[in-house]
Design goal:
heterodimer, A: about 270 residues, alpha/beta, Rossmann fold, 4-stranded antiparallel sheet, 12 strands, B: about 350 residues, mainly alpha, ABC transporter involved in vitamin B12 uptake, BtuC, 15 helices, about 0% strand, globular
C-alpha cells in the first residue's frame, strides 16, 4: 500500500498541504481532484518520494518512502510529470528505452517497448524523433515510457503508477484511451494515482476520488457518492450540476450562466 | 528493426555505428602518427619503428622520446579530458552550450595554476614532500572544483539551466579570473612572467614526461568513470525530477560529475594551459556523427577531442615552421566562430532554455 499519513507541506510561508492523508491500494485507481492550487500535484510529489514533508510521513509497503534509495524507489513506483520534457534528440524508441534497466535482455526490452507504444497508439512512430511529435503525442510517448518503467521492474504487480494530469493535453478520444490504460494497469495489480481536472473522467474511471480544496482533503470515496452539486459548487466557486442515472457514472455539468450562447437564436 | 539499437537518423542511419567508431579511431591513429612523424625533422615509419624497438639513431631517438611522443600523449589526454568534461557538463546541465572554458571552469583552473607559478615559492615549502611535484595540478584542481561547484549550484536550480544565466555566470567568472591572473602577472618577476604568458596561451609543447604522466593518469582515470555514465546522462535529459523518478540519485551523480570534470579540466589546464572550445566542439561533432545517446557520444567525443587537439597542434606547427604558436590560439580561433554559429542557430529556433 502507498499511504500518506497526516502530511503537512509549506513552501516558504505558504502552507500547501495541511494534515493530508491518502491511501492507494494495489489494484485500485484513485483520482485526485480539486481546483487549481488545491495541493494535488504537491501531494502526488510527496507520495512519489520527491521530498520529506514537514510533518507526517509517506509509506510505500510500510517503508518510509524518503528512506529508500532512488533506484529502489524507481522499481516500486513510476511517475508521469505534468509537463514531461526531453532535451536530447532521442527517437521515440530511445525515449522508452531509458526506462529499461541494464539487466533486461534486448529482445525482451524491444518487445516491452513495442507493446507499450502500441497501447498508447504510437506503434508506428517508434523511429521518429520525439521533437517532431505533437504535444499530445509527446505526452503519450512519455506515458509509454513510464509504463515501461513500471512493467520492467521486478515486481510489476505491486508497483504504483502516478500520473499528474495525464489527459490535459489530449483530445477527447485519447483522454479516454489514457484512462483505459490507467484502468488496465490497476486491473493488472498496480496501485494507480491520477491527478485529474476532468471530473467526468474521474467519476467514470476511478474506484475512488479524493477531493482536495485549499490544502486539505475534503472528501474521499466513490465518485458517485462524493460528487454532489452542492459540494462541487462550493469548492469550485461556480455553479455545477450533477446528473445521475441509475447504473451510470454521475455526469458533472458546469452551469455557464447568462454570458454563454443559449442556442441558435442567441 | 530492433528498438534499443534504433540508429539515429543522421550519418549513423546510413552506415551503422561500428564503422563510424572504426573511422574515428583510424583518424586518431593517423593524426597521432603525423604528430610524431612531421616537423622540422621528418621521421619516417622506419625511424619510428627502430626507435621504438630501442635501435634508433641518437638524433631521432631524442626527438621522438623527449619531444614528440610526450607531446602526442599529452595532446590525446588533453583532447579526451576536455571533450569528456564538456560532454558530461552539457549532459548534466541539459545545456549544449556548457563548455569548461565558457562557464569558467578552465579559468578557475588557470587561477589556481597561476597562483602556484607565481606565489608557489611562498608555500610550496610548507607542503609535504610527496605533494610538492604535484602543486601545479593541485592548484589547478582546487580552482576548477571551486568554479564547478559554483556553476552547479548557480545554474541547476530548477532542473534545467537557463542558457543566458549560464553564459553570463561564465562571463562573470572569467572576468574575475582574468583580474586575479592580472594581479598575479603584476607581481610576478620576469621569468615567471614569461612562463605565465606562454602557458596562458595554451600549448602541449611543454610536455615533459612528468607532467604528461600526471595529466594522462588523471584525465584517463576520470575519463573512464565519465565514459560509464552514459545512461545516467541520458536520464538527465528528462529533467532532474523525472531522472530521479527513473532511479537516478541526482545529487550524488551531480557531485560525481562535478568532481570528475573538475579533476580532468584541472589536470589538463595545469599541463597545457587554458585551451578553449574543445569541450564545446567535440561533443557537438560527436552527436552529429553518432546520434544523441551518451553511451555513444562520450567515446566518440573523446576520440574527436584527441584528434582535434593533435590536428590543431599539427596545424600551428606546420603553418609557420620552425616557430610553434600555442594551439590555444588555434582552438579559440576556430571554436569562437563555431560557438557564435551555435548560439545563432539556437536563437533562431527561439529557445532560451536548454
Amino acid at each position: 500500500m502507498l499511504e500518506a499519513q497526516g502530511i503537512t507541506v509549506s513552501f516558504g510561508k505558504t502552507t500547501v498541504l495541511r494534515d493530508v492523508s491518502l491511501r492507494v491500494r494495489p489494484g485500485e485507481l484513485v483520482a485526485l481532484c480539486g481546483p487549481n492550487g488545491a495541493g494535488k500535484s504537491t501531494l502526488l510529489a510527496a507520495m512519489a518520494g520527491d521530498f520529506q514533508p514537514e510533518r507526517g510521513q509517506v509509506f510505500i509497503e510500510g517503508a518510509i518512502i524518503t528512506g529508500l534509495p532512488p533506484a529502489e524507489l524507481a522499481r516500486r513506483r513510476a511517475v508521469l510529470e505534468q509537463s514531461p520534457s526531453l532535451s536530447a534528440g532521442f527517437s521515440v524508441g530511445e525515449l522508452l528505452a531509458l526506462s529499461i534497466p541494464r539487466d533486461v535482455p534486448p529482445e525482451q526490452a524491444d518487445a516491452l517497448i513495442a507493446r507499450k507504444l502500441h497501447s498508447v497508439g504510437l506503434a508506428d512512430r517508434i523511429g521518429d524523433n520525439c521533437q517532431i511529435l505533437s504535444g499530445g503525442q509527446r505526452h503519450r510517448a512519455h506515458l509509454a515510457r513510464v509504463l515501461v518503467q513500471l512493467a520492467a521492474s521486478d515486481t510489476p504487480d505491486t508497483g504504483y503508477l502516478m500520473l499528474d494530469e495525464p489527459t490535459s493535453s489530449l483530445d477527447i478520444a485519447h483522454q479516454i484511451t489514457t484512462m483505459r490504460i490507467a484502468r488496465r494497469a490497476a486491473r493488472e495489480g498496480a496501485g494507480v494515482l491520477v491527478v485529474l481536472h476532468d471530473l467526468n473522467l474521474a467519476a467514470a474511471f476511478a474506484d475512488r476520488v479524493a477531493l482536495m480544496h485549499d490544502g486539505r482533503m475534503v472528501a474521499d470515496g466513490p465518485g458517485a457518492e462524493i460528487f454532489t452539486a452542492d459540494r462541487l459548487s462550493a469548492i469550485y466557486e461556480t455553479e455545477i450540476a450533477v446528473e445521475r442515472e441509475d447504473g451510470q457514472a454521475p455526469r458533472i455539468l458546469p452551469v455557464y450562466g447568462p454570458d454563454a450562447h443559449a442556442g441558435p437564436e442567441a | 528493426m530492433a528498438v534499443t539499437t534504433t540508429l539515429p537518423r543522421r550519418v549513423a542511419g546510413v552506415f551503422g555505428r561500428r564503422p563510424l567508431f572504426g573511422a574515428l579511431g583510424a583518424l586518431v591513429v593517423l593524426v597521432a602518427f603525423a604528430e610524431v612523424a612531421l616537423g622540422p625533422v621528418r621521421l619516417g615509419p622506419v625511424d619510428l619503428f627502430s626507435v621504438l624497438i630501442g635501435n634508433g639513431e641518437p638524433g631521432p631517438t631524442a626527438i621522438l622520446l623527449q619531444i614528440r611522443l610526450p607531446r602526442m600523449v599529452l595532446g590525446l589526454a588533453v583532447g579526451m579530458g576536455l571533450a569528456l568534461s564538456g560532454c558530461a557538463l552539457q549532459g548534466v546541465l541539459r545545456n549544449p552550450l556548457a563548455d569548461p572554458g565558457l562557464i569558467g571552469v578552465t579559468a578557475g583552473a588557470a587561477v589556481g595554476a597561476v597562483t602556484v607559478i607565481v606565489l608557489g615559492n611562498f608555500f610550496i615549502g610548507e607542503l609535504p614532500a610527496f605533494v610538492r611535484p604535484y602543486a601545479l595540478p593541485l592548484g589547478a584542481f582546487v580552482g576548477s572544483i571551486l568554479v564547478t561547484g559554483f556553476v552547479f549550484t548557480f545554474a541547476s536550480r530548477s532542473g534545467g539551466t537557463n542558457v543566458a544565466m549560464l553564459i553570463l555566470a561564465g562571463v562573470a567568472v572569467n572576468a574575475i579570473a582574468g583580474a586575479l591572473i592580472g594581479a598575479m602577472v603584476y607581481i610576478s618577476d620576469d621569468q615567471q612572467l614569461r612562463d605565465l604568458t606562454f602557458w596562458s596561451m595554451g600549448s602541449i609543447a611543454s610536455g615533459n614526461w612528468m607532467s604528461v604522466a600526471v595529466t594522462s593518469v588523471v584525465a584517463v582515470a576520470s575519463g573512464l568513470f565519465l565514459l560509464r555514465m552514459g545512461r545516467t546522462l541520458d536520464l538527465f535529459q528528462l529533467g532532474e525530477r523525472a531522472a530521479f523518478h527513473a532511479g537516478v540519485d541526482i545529487e550524488r551523480q551531480k557531485r560525481r560529475i562535478a568532481l570528475l570534470t573538475a579533476l580532468s579540466v584541472g589536470a589538463v589546464t595545469a599541463a597545457a594551459g587554458p585551451i578553449g572550445f574543445i569541450g564545446l566542439v567535440a561533443p557537438h561533432m560527436a552527436r552529429l556523427i553518432v546520434g544523441p545517446a551518451h553511451r555513444h557520444v562520450l567515446p566518440a567525443a573523446a576520440l574527436i577531442g584527441g584528434a582535434l587537439i593533435l590536428g590543431a597542434d599539427l596545424g600551428v606547427r606546420l603553418a609557420v615552421p620552425p616557430s610553434e604558436p600555442p594551439i590555444g590560439l588555434a582552438t579559440s580561433m576556430i571554436g569562437g566562430p563555431f560557438f557564435l554559429w551555435l548560439l545563432m542557430r539556437r536563437m533562431n529556433r527561439g529557445g532560451g532554455n536548454a
